[in-house]
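cache lookup: miss for this entity combination. No prior model stored, computing from scratch. Input as submitted by user K.M.:
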Amino acid sequence: MKTTKVHFTDPHIELAHGAGGKASRRLIEGLLVPYLMKDTLTELNDAAYVDADGRRLAFTVDSYVVKPLVFPGGSIGEIAINGTVNDLAMGGAKPLAMVTTLILEAGLAASELEREVVAMAKAAQRAGVPVVGGDTKVVEHGKADGLYITTAGIGLSDPRVHLSAQNVRPGDQVILSGPIGDHGITVLLARGELDLEADLTSDTRPLWPFVAALIEVAAPGLRWMRDPTRGGLATALNELARDARVAVVLDEEAIQVRPAVRGACEILGLDPLHIANEGQFVAIVSPEYAEIAIDALKRVPGGEEARRIGEIQKEPNRVVLARSRYGGTRVIDMLVGDPLPRIC
Amino acid sequence: MKTTKVHFTDPHIELAHGAGGKASRRLIEGLLVPYLMKDTLTELNDAAYVDADGRRLAFTVDSYVVKPLVFPGGSIGEIAINGTVNDLAMGGAKPLAMVTTLILEAGLAASELEREVVAMAKAAQRAGVPVVGGDTKVVEHGKADGLYITTAGIGLSDPRVHLSAQNVRPGDQVILSGPIGDHGITVLLARGELDLEADLTSDTRPLWPFVAALIEVAAPGLRWMRDPTRGGLATALNELARDARVAVVLDEEAIQVRPAVRGACEILGLDPLHIANEGQFVAIVSPEYAEIAIDALKRVPGGEEARRIGEIQKEPNRVVLARSRYGGTRVIDMLVGDPLPRIC
């Protein structure tokens, strides 16, 4: 990373280092990237590109430690497939194949494992991406939490698409695929530690069909995409503002938040913009392609709520702003701390 | 898998399910493959093959949960890189790129993490394979054991090589790269639970240079390769005997076992053939290429101890036999149970 000189000086690892917000960035940019990726990495994205004898591949991996293992609308097995499919899609790549590992805690009921293996198989089938290999490890009781899943995926990068924060320009439009916060609040409520109930389900789903539709009609105008998981939409757009050295100005009214998510956030003192999603994404599209891109998303089943939520401006540099319906603006910061640990 | 109808009926997951032996096979073939890979998998190998628009890629992933994190000759970070490089090499593929995830336990000292990140970076540099991406999760204290690492890798499959148990024929020669059991016994002793000491280090190293040398001189004769990690040489060769429907007849005297490994095994009642390795591999080579293959391995630094250790015969079908110096033979079974948990 050319843009930063981050030093990681924290003495111990804390939950916040895994939350996707500021502490995560400090760990990644201050410790992991300088050693592991100093020569290879130009930009932190959901998937990396690898040249394989003339074919441009997208390559990605994620570990899943969500708690509880099952929640309304999904489970760890389902998000372990969809999340990796979506990271490839966010790289403009049609998913080709996945490999997966299980870290199992001794004592786990075989029926729980079977349930998650079935969930993975169904999700892979729905996404149309085969699982071609894997690995299983078992650790002693008390050295994991049921099971952790890691899924790596490769995809073929569409040659029509060139995604990079460096390509984002003032005037580009910010498009969001649907309502935010469903996944994070669903998982939080599923823990049962709060005396709250809501008719809400995780939004986990494969995003490739939406991206494929976008590419068909708007490839030349597609600048940057991200599925805002940990840290939420606010964190994803702050990273964009920083990497692209632009302002992201949001029309806060246009960002859909279901009443149940908004209500839970109000009670808990959380901002929906910081809540994790699993099945939504944000795309930056040049102005001349914005309308056709939104139309294309709306035509894909499940994309009916796609809309423009803001635009890129030159100033204030590296800042995300939200304009309210009353004309006021507020600065939207990255997530700090970890209000919702182990959300994916 | 066409060859088996395994049913997984164990009620709970136990450490033995992760040991690489019979219980692992039951879990994999009875539960994981039938759901996840029923359409894609023809043979369980270290790496899977994926067609990427005309390029034959090898794709692999492994999780690493070794305990302790550091041991003589290596550490979790080093084996997390070498192990994945080696799985690609065993698929006859030159490693192209890796991605990696860390599951960190809250409370882990940052200095411990830094040490392992440095170990990963050094191992990747030594192997000549870039790390291009990753993911980090943090779980609560007591929900992991320091850190777990998962590494996925892709490689370009050498078009001259066609590796499959189906290609193995009676008369083919069994070639082993060096002494066995170093890694498993080193890790076991590093735990300090036994009142044993030995001047022994893990054999972890990248195997691609050896495979590259083999391919150069013996590609048409190269039938099958495996790095015998969990479950040891005995388990790897039993899988071969079963998949290829042949007998593997070993000359037990030719299999090198260091005195420290043999001594520890005798005290503990273990068979060196069941002990995990990280930096050795076994290759099945057609008889006309066997000598040139061994010569090529010996010329690669660290390959001086490569030698022929046996041959493939038609009968007794699906069995591994070892001949002793006194002319007796014994049946070598797969690993049963888990004498050495969390060895990689």
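stored under new cache key. Chain A touches chain B through 81 residues (CB under 8 Å).
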